[in-house]
Automatic annotation (TrEMBL):
It comes from Iconisemion striatum. Pfam families: HLH (PF00010). This is Neurogenin 1. PROSITE patterns: BHLH. Gene3D superfamilies: Helix-loop-helix DNA-binding domain. Transmembrane segments: none annotated. The lineage of its organism: Eukaryota, Metazoa, Chordata, Craniata, Vertebrata. One of its GO terms (biological process) is positive regulation of transcription by RNA polymerase II.
Amino acid sequence: RGRVRSEATVQVVKKNRRLKANDRERNRMHNLNDALDTLRGVLPAFPDETKLTKIETLRFAHNYIWALSETIRIADLQAGKSGDAPRLL
């Protein structure tokens, strides 16, 4: 097996592992928050400019993408009936 370490050495190793894990988690959360801020920036804004929560941002983005997809689908259906290309404003 491995070498025998003193209790003090074990505690130092554990503390360093925990500090590194905390740092990785902090960086992960910063990256996630940056990505959500970027997503909020491309969604239509609300009149009162309130910041959406994380879950509200994801739900709003999902619904917005669905609405855009439906708009394109309906425009394609109408273009197929009339023979014209869709004119989205």
